[in-house]
Design goal:
single chain; UDP-n-acetylglucosamine1-carboxyvinyl-transferase, Chain; four-stranded mixed β-sheet; 12 helices; 18 strands
């Protein structure tokens, strides 16, 4: 393997930072505002959601596949590392952003229990739990950091148990850590509550074709369909066809993954949201080569572009009311921009985000109030009314990469009109989870824009 599991990330695809060390970031990082309109282009990293899904599907495939444009970050490192521990061969090359995955005879053949660590990677955690449950043999223990032990798993655990999986929760019932004594999965009719996270359903769908028979899944509660559709369509690109849901029901059948020799990962639409907002903070324009338009690719978060169109067309002073249930990973981007908008912003569809890396609704409320904003917090919504920004504040990130990136963009606003920092980020290295080079790229774009 080439460089993939190193702490420091080298990635020539990013033209502004050919080599960047995460250790270069201080514990508290002042954000330097833009003093000139933004210009240039950003080569977006590959989608985290698609990279981790494609890694799992490639591991289940009966022929090798090379993933191009893959994301190299903490979350995908954890996923790839776990797959190698399970016996899968993952050859990684950061210079070409490729991951070559093959299904060897050694997969699931460890004679001793396998200990898998997932950190705070929700996709890796849910996907690996389902993968280990469908294994024909072996004992697997899965755990993460303390925050991961509070992220919802009960819906998936109960569904896998209904299919014959032997799963023991080693701590609190319904949460990590887990011990799975694998003997494969049966078919049959089951219920699944995926209202806490669509990843619970996506995890089950991806391993379902390896079950001994068809599975009919009756869904309980609401589901974020954008990410489920991403999963289903990606499975189709790997040769497994799952019919679209009929109401609240999805049926799978036993099939074999037969992927193309090469599969290209789309640029990350969620990461794109920060760069789409930057010109609204600093003026100017920014090109994002390769980013798919809404509906043109697999990622529902591309729909954030429509939100920005409505921001642009809103009559000053009127309420901007947006439902983010289907694109909730981008709600922090809009919330951090809200202090600069002319009128209140109401963001709904947020209940499930209280159980992600942190309680994102409560955290966003706290940080916006720290900046002097008027915020009304509800279980499912935030209403933000702009007030004069309070300078010299340090934003807490709660171990959550999206707090760091969203507020870093707000910090690019030239509040004092002299280019002096007025906002700092606590623990900025959390960006490593999905976008290790984000803050370095932000500095480079600022410097390049100022030099024109």
């Amino acid at each position: 393997m080439i460089g993939y599991f190193a702490t420091d990330i080298a990635c020539p695809r990013f033209p502004f930072s050919p080599h960047f060390h995460l250790s270069d970031l201080p514990e508290i990082l002042p954000i330097v505002p833009f003093t000139a309109p933004v210009s240039g282009s950003i080569a977006l990293p590959g989608s985290k959601s698609l990279t981790n899904r494609a890694l799992l599907l490639a591991a289940l495939s009966r022929s090798p596949v090379t993933l191009t444009g893959a994301l190299f970050s903490e979350d995908t490192r954890l996923m790839a590392t776990a797959l190698t521990q399970l016996g899968c061969k993952v050859a990684a090359d950061e210079n070409t952003l490729t991951l070559k995955v093959s299904y060897p005879d050694s997969l699931f053949r460890a004679s001793q229990p396998v200990e898998l660590f997932v950190g705070l990677a929700g996709t890796a955690a849910r996907f690996l739990a389902a993968l280990c449950a469908v294994a024909p043999r072996g004992v697997y223990r899965i755990d993460g950091i303390e925050q991961m032990r509070h992220r919802p798993m009960a819906g998936l655990i109960n569904a896998l148990r209904a299919l014959g999986a032997d799963i023991t929760c080693l701590g609190q019932e319904g949460f990590f850590p887990l011990e799975i004594r694998a003997s494969g999965l049966s078919g049959g009719r089951i219920q699944l509550d995926a209202s806490a996270s669509s990843q619970l359903l996506s995890a089950l769908l991806m391993v379902a074709p390896l079950a001994r028979g068809p599975i009919e899944i009756s869904l309980v509660g609401k589901v974020r369909w954008t990410f489920v559709e991403m999963t289903r369509r990606l499975m189709g690109e790997f040769g497994v066809i799952i019919p679209a849901a009929v109401g609240q029901r999805i049926t799978t059948s036993r099939q074999t993954y037969l992927p193309p020799a090469t599969h290209a990962i789309e640029p990350d639409a969620t990461a794109a949201s920060y760069w789409q907002v930057l010109p609204k903070v600093a003026g100017g324009s920014l090109d994002l080569p390769g980013l798919r338009a809404p509906g043109a690719g697999l990622q529902g978060d591309a729909g954030f572009a429509h939100v920005l169109q409505r921001v642009q067309s809103r009559i000053a002073g009127t309420l901007l009311d947006e439902d983010f249930r289907e694109i909730s990973d981008t709600f922090l981007t809009l919330a951090a921009l809200a202090p600069l908008l002319e009128g209140p912003t109401r963001i709904t569809g947020l209940t499930h985000t209280r159980h992600q890396e942190t309680d994102r609704v409560a955290g966003m409320t706290t940080e916006l109030k720290r900046l002097g904003q008027e915020v009304v917090e509800e279980e499912d919504a935030l209403t933000i009314t702009p007030r004069p920004l309070r300078p010299d504040q340090v934003i807490e990130t709660y171990g959550d990469h999206r707090f760091a990136m969203s507020f870093a963009i707000l910090g690019c606003h030239n509040l004092h009109q002299n280019g002096q920092p007025w906002l700092s980020i606590h623990h900025p290295a959390v960006c490593a989870k999905t976008f290790p080079h984000f803050l370095k790229l932000l500095d480079d774009v600022r410097e390049k824009s100022s030099s024109k």
